[in-house]
Structures are given as structure tokens and as C-alpha cells.
Amino acid sequence: MTKRSAQPLTDWLGEAIATLARVPEPPSPTTDLRALGLTSLAMVTLQYRLMIEQGLTVPIDELITAPSLAALAQRLETLRQTEDAA
After folding, report:
1. How far apart are CA 74 and CA 59, in angstroms?
2. Is the pLDDT of residue 1 over 50?
3. Would you call 29 helix, strand, or coil by DSSP?
4. 41 CB contacts (<8 Å, ≥6 apart)?
5. 50: domain CATH number?
6. pTM of the model
7. Which of 22, 26, 49, 83 gives 18 a disulfide partner, CB atoms 3.0 to 4.6 angstroms apart?
8. Residue range of the domain that includes 21
């Protein structure tokens, strides 16, 4: 079983997205993720990191259509609760 990071998911996502977007600071929770110019490869990398580091299997369309960091974190928390209940 994959070990989850103890870091809050919003913080983890912010740092992961900052790394992938090659920006110096994590985006604010309300930043439009599409404005960061993340490539399809970056999104697949984020999908993989979520699986390995957070134990979440996330459909790529959930990552691509998320309007903001906060919205994505909320979707992922919902997914996490659904997976935990299974």
C-alpha cells in the first residue's frame, strides 16, 4: 500500500504544482491552474505523484478541468474519502 504524505493535501498540491510549473512559490488556492501553463506531461506527472505519494488514483480529466488549486484539493479530498470508504 502507498504511504500518504503527512503534509496537508492543499500544501502538497501547491508545492507539486509549483515544481511542475517551474514557478518559485506555490500558487494561491484561487489561482487559475490553466494560467500556469502546465503541459500534458506535467499533468501526467502530477497524476503519477498523486498515486505514489498520496495513494490517490485520479482520472487525468479531474486534473485538467480543475479551475483552481482549492477546487482540485477539494475534489481530491472527496476522492480520498470515497477510496477510504471502499
Report:
1. 15
2. no
3. coil
4. none
5. 1.10.1200.10
6. 0.85
7. 26
8. 9-85
